[in-house]
Amino acid sequence: MKKSLFTLALFMFVGLYSTAQKVEFEEYKLDNGLHVILHQENAAPIVTVGVMYQVGAKDEVEGRTGFAHFFEHLLFEGTENIERGEWFNIVSANGGRNNANTTQDRTYYYETFPSNKLEIGLWMESERMLHPIIEQIGVDTQNEVVKEEKRQRIDNAPYGKIIYRTGINNHLFKKHPYGRSVIGSMDDLNAAKLDEFISFNEQFYNPNNATLVVAGDIDVEETKKMIQDYFGPIENKAEANVRKPVVEDPITETRYATEYDANIQIPAYIFSYITPKSVDKDAYVLDYISSILTGGNSSRMYKRMVDQDKVALQVLAFNQASQDYGTYTMGALIKGEPDWDSLKATMDEEIKKLQTELISEKEYQKLKNQFETRFVNANSRIEGVASSLATYQMLQGDASRINKELDIYNSITREDIMAVANKYLNPNQRVEIKYLAGSEPESDK
Question: Are the CB atoms for 181 and 104 separated by under 8 Å?
């Protein structure tokens, strides 16, 4: 019954919250360095507690890749006061849900509860930060979980290397750790000793390396007191994570690569570019460009390659702006026998049009409407607001960008679109990848 009422409340909240415009919040720091963000929204009796740690795949050392993602799983094993295997049971028994995710730049954990269970969420996340149990049985268990995840999402999933960029970023980045995959190497994880996992936790899972967000149906002063009680006494085991910037050399000549996928029958042709970091306005312009070229059945590439020329079954694009750099990947699933030169020429023709001709006013207005809808939808759930506030604060240094993003999109002009296409989407700035069915030949390994 608790779950049913919670689901109903969440459904009602989505409708109420989706009309909101400005996200009001308060932020401050505890004495131990924990950054706290509070967002009060009393439209429905739910609350999200999220903690984002400044540790991602780019913080791993060579030979020990996959640690950040591994900890996303490991830190659900249990703590001194939460028995092994009981984390999810506690959340469920209190009518909540929880999850976690890892990127190149950060790791994020959250719980969403009925608002009268806020204290449980704060207690659980303080437990995770204060004294998780890291022991061999947990490492061995989660090692198998991560291996299975890799098999399902990448090794045995059609186009997994494209979707998760494990067969793309390694060709783009030669110096920067973005060239490594988030899921990492199973060999590295197998070789790691227990004390290495303990050291990783001590290095990164500290208050001075984290942002706590509490969003939803809260009383601010009561919440502050609980946060102080649960998180204030936690001491740091290491200095805050200070990253040294790694500068990637720009691509100045076209790079060529071939990737193989035993799970597909239809090959693909891929263009991939290094683009600006997330705080840069050009990253937002590239979102527009991605939508114009490959954003659904009305996009230019789809109309040209699928509907008109009938040389592709589908087009694809991934525009991802991260803390240090972004990537823009576009391509097509090929129909019939591949004519690589013709496919390449067609894709380049559509890019060239964007570089030499302003998009129409009608297409421009459609873009703005699409992105306004997308922005509202992204912040229509309290979980989305919590994640956005933490992300903007940690990775862009300004939580208030949650209220500026739509203005940034609306400030983009048709001339900006043309200029950014000319600045980043040139043949000498990209990797071209033939994505083929089958296994990698022995001679290529």
Answer: no
Within 13 Å and on the Cβ side, how many CA atoms surround 121? 28
Q: Residue 403 is encoded by which pair of tokens?
A: 């209220």
Give CATH for domain 2-231: 3.30.830.10
Is residue 336 packed enough to be buried (19+ CB in 10 Å), middle (13-18) or exposed (0-12)? exposed
Per-residue confidence (pLDDT) for residue 436, from 0 to 100:
94
Q: Each residue of 139-167: pLDDT tens digit?
A: 999 999 998 998 888 888 898 888 888 88
Residue type, 24: E
**pLDDT, tens digit (0-9, with 9 covering 90-100), for 246-305:** 999 999 999 999 999 999 999 999 999 999 999 999 999 999 999 999 988 999 999 999
- Burial code of 187-205, b = ≥16 C-beta within 10 A, e = fewer? ebbeebeeeebeebbeebb
In Å, what is the CA distance from 204 to each residue of 50, 51, 223?
16, 13, 25
Instruction: Give the CATH number of domain 255-444.
Output: 3.30.830.10
Yes or no: say if 291 and 299 are a contact pair by the CB < 8 Å rule: yes
Q: Which residues is 315 bridged to in the sheet?
A: 332
The beta-strand segments (E) located in 115-239 are 210-216
Runs of H (alpha helix) within 260-322: 281-294, 300-301
Q: What are phi and psi of 69, to 5 degrees?
A: -65, -40
- Alpha-carbon distance of 141 to 222, in angstroms, equals 38
Q: How far is CA 409 from the centre of its chain?
A: 20
Q: Where in the chain is the domain with CATH 3.30.830.10?
A: 2-231, 255-444
DSSP state at residue 302: I
Q: What is the pTM of this model?
A: 0.91
- Structure letter (DSSP) for residue 132: B
